[in-house]
Design a protein that fits this description.
The protein has 3 helices and no strands. The protein has about 70 residues and is mostly helical. Keywords: Membrane, Transmembrane, Transmembrane helix.
């Protein structure tokens, strides 16, 4: 699995976790969902994503989007 696909999986899991936390723990966890969305939008424009930096350090092979 390359970084591009792993990042999509990671973002999806984080969104689901934040929605469960919003529903079960406290309504303010919706801001975590908003943070994830904003980070995905800025990464699509800038190509900078902190998760990608971590995945690279873990040795995940690069894809075509994040090099």
């Amino acid at each position: 699995m390359n970084i591009d696909r792993l990042l999509l999986v990671f973002a999806g899991v984080m969104i689901l976790v934040s929605l469960v936390l919003t529903q079960k723990v406290h309504a303010n966890f919706v801001w975590f969902t908003a943070f994830i969305a904003v980070n995905m939008i800025q990464a699509s424009f800038t190509g900078f994503c902190p998760a990608v930096m971590i995945f690279k350090k873990l040795g995940v092979k690069t894809g075509s989007a994040f090099k």
